[in-house]
Design goal:
It contains 13 helices and nine strands. By secondary structure, the protein is of the alpha/beta class. The protein has a seven-stranded parallel sheet. It has a two-stranded antiparallel sheet with strand order 2-3. Helix 6 links the parallel strand 5 and strand 6. The protein is globular and about 50 Å long. The two termini are 26 Å apart. Bound molecules: iron/sulfur cluster. Iron/sulfur cluster (SF4) binds next to helix 2.
């Protein structure tokens, strides 16, 4: 249990935590989105941020197409930093099959790719959406990859926390379809809604692309739930029951037990919520060598 424990000076800890990449900046150095609103999950960071900008609950639930983001010109961006992808699209991690939202998203994605950028399409993967995207963007298989959000290996938990999202089976089917269609695939298990990640890893691994670290492909990203984004008014019934099971597993001792075991797993990457927890508790992280030389 102690093999990854190291001594990190307070100064190095501070330096590391100051430089750590937050959110999706380690995936792509630019974000793109053209729909305001979503409403798939109960733990929505994007919704919390939108509320801060004055967007009401109703406005968030009734999605709005932001045409000025679709209509503007996109240039090929020069690579910046270590992120392997130019754009992550969409920031809401969801593309709706319903019109006019689907066509709006396709238009923007097409523009990003046509201008020569690489795009990491990040989705809660509904199979109809993935099949249409694969068909339409076959010609961009070297420029576009998929990161699918699969946060639990248990449909009951998915139903509680992502009530309008696809089932586990639909997500796995989408993952298999995209990989078999020749696209590079990767998974985000953030926020991890299961008490440990082993079952989820076993379920998704057979459907993933081969690992390619230079493009961050074939990887499974694991991150922790930020409970503060679940509105207090929703914390009752089954949601509260599962939260009561899940919250103790967000503590260092529990996370370390699987972090330690999976440290050398070739597919596993850790989001900043876990990296921070490890650094604060004097546990080695691979990224530390980039800061402390
Ligand atoms: S898919 Fe993303 S944007 Fe949509 S509700 Fe879930 S967390 Fe929010």
């Amino acid at each position: 249990m102690s093999k990854l424990k190291i001594k990190i000076s307070d100064m190095d800890k501070k330096r590391f935590l100051r430089n750590i990449k937050m959110g999706t900046k380690e995936w792509a150095y630019k974000n793109a989105n053209c729909i305001q609103g979503c409403g798939v999950c109960i733990y929505c960071y994007a919704k919390a941020m939108a509320k801060r900008r004055g967007i009401t609950e109703d406005e968030w639930d009734n999605k709005l197409i932001v045409w000025k983001r679709i209509n503007k010109n996109y240039l090929k961006l020069k690579p910046k930093g270590n992120a392997p992808w130019t754009y992550m699209f969409p920031t809401t991690h969801n593309i709706f099959i319903e019109e006019p939202y689907f066509s709006a998203c396709i238009k923007l994605l097409d523009k990003l790719l046509r201008s020569g950028n690489t795009v990491l399409v990040t989705l809660k993967p509904f199979s109809k959406v993935v099949k249409k995207l694969c068909e339409q963007f076959q010609g961009y298989r070297d420029k576009m990859a998929y990161r699918f959000t699969i946060t639990s290996a248990d449909n009951e938990i998915l139903q509680i926390f992502e009530p309008k999202g696809p089932s586990l089976e639909e997500r796995l089917e989408s993952l298999g379809f995209a990989s078999e269609s020749g696209f590079s695939t990767t998974v985000s298990a953030e926020p991890l809604l299961d008490l440990q990640p082993y079952n989820l890893i076993n379920q998704v691994e057979p459907y993933l692309s081969k690992v390619d670290y230079s493009k961050d492909i074939g990887t499974i990203w694991i991150g922790l739930l930020k409970v503060k984004y679940i509105p207090k008014s929703l914390r009752k019934g089954k949601i509260l029951e599962h939260l009561n099971r899940l919250i103790p597993t967000l503590k260092f001792e529990h996370v370390y037990s699987y972090y330690n075991e999976l440290y050398h797993h070739p597919r596993i990457k850790w989001k900043e919520s876990i990296i921070k927890l490890m650094i604060q508790n004097n546990v080695n992280v691979k990224e530390l060598s980039l800061i402390i030389q």
